[in-house]
Amino acid sequence: MTPITTTDALAEYCARVAKAPFIAVDTEFMRETTYWPKLCLIQAATPTDEAIIDPLADGLDLTPFLDLLRDPAIVKVFHAARQDTEIFVKLGAMPVPLFDTQVAAMAAGFGEQVAYDGLVRQMLRIDLDKGSRFTDWSRRPLSDAQLTYAIGDVTHLAALYPKLRDRLAREGRLDWVTAEMQGLVDPALYDTTPDNAWKRLKPKKFAAKYLAAFKATAVWREQAAQDRDQPRGRILKDEAIDEIATQAPTDVDGFNRLRSVPKGFGGSRLGLELIEELKRVLADPEAHAPKMDRPSHNNAAPPSVVELLKVLLKAKSDNAGVASKLIATVSDLEKIAVDDNAKVDALTGWRRQLFGEDALKLKRGEIALVLNGARVEVVEIE
């Protein structure tokens, strides 16, 4: 297959598939040494028409394809969509409506985060050749093996989607997946604003001085990573942010005593920048610390209750053929253990029907878990 390398050819392809009910999409990108992913290839396929698009081609304008992604009449099908979606959001095109076959597979009984090749093998009885998976997609020309691998990712995806969708519809679970997709197209998920970077991390303390330094370091790191187009971890590791917030160093010697920062960081250009930022916020920690509710020690989740909820979750997920991770997380269980009205997904919608109601009944002693052979069952208590 010859990749599309001109805007006219791309516009022609997009016009041909504009009336398709869905389009399967995949990308090949590189970001091991960069903050921003470098888009190297786009693969797209409907049931009758497929294409490989070369975004590195000189003069190629991706607008026709981005318009296709924005079209609400066409379902965009991905497997493990988040990183692909992040790339297109950066290009200004949120792919809505979206269908992620990895999430759908979790609802259809294929386990936790099933790999694409595993799903293709189980549903289409095809073994994929993954030999080109880790090749350098930025080098040109691309080999025939690379192109064959790349187009296979979407042609099989286009064949898999209707089967998976029909299976979920028969089992009454299509609405579950549709609801789950709303989270994947939430713009907040792809927010790279440096001021919000600290929210992805977990502060371990709640004193104003710690929080002011914690937020300032996370914000500084995000901005430095973006400005230099380097991965966050190459600037500072996550654990270094906690140590810096705890020790609050404001000079080179203070940084050189830290264990989690690179040797010599304090005297480097980056280190000196961060020292000045820490001096600024620590001059008035109360004004710069984010507002956070301090957890009450009285509300700590009882370990025994959490363990019981884990057993119930496993039983419910096994019996329903749904990946437990899709129903509730450990964090959800901890919150349910201390609060019947916890603001968690596990107590809303289909999750509440499948698991949440019985979780609350278990807490109230209205049901019990019994072992029937190798199977855990739920029984009502008279």
How many alpha or pi helices?
17
H-E string? HEEEHEHEHHHHHHHHHHHHHHEE
Named CATH topology of the largest domain: Nucleotidyltransferase, domain 5
End-to-end Cα distance: 67 Å
Strand order of the largest sheet: 3-2-1-4-5
What is the CATH architecture assignment of the largest domain?
Answer: 2-Layer Sandwich
Q: Provide the domain count.
A: 3
- Helical content, roughly? 40-55%
Low-confidence stretches: none
CATH homologous superfamily title of the largest domain: Ribonuclease H-like superfamily/Ribonuclease H
Arithmetic mean of pLDDT: 94
Q: Strand share of the residues?
A: 5-15%
CATH class of the largest domain: Alpha Beta
So what's the overall shape?
flat
Protein name: Ribonuclease D
EC number: 3.1.13.5
Cofactor: a divalent metal cation
Pfam family, one: DNA_pol_A_exo1
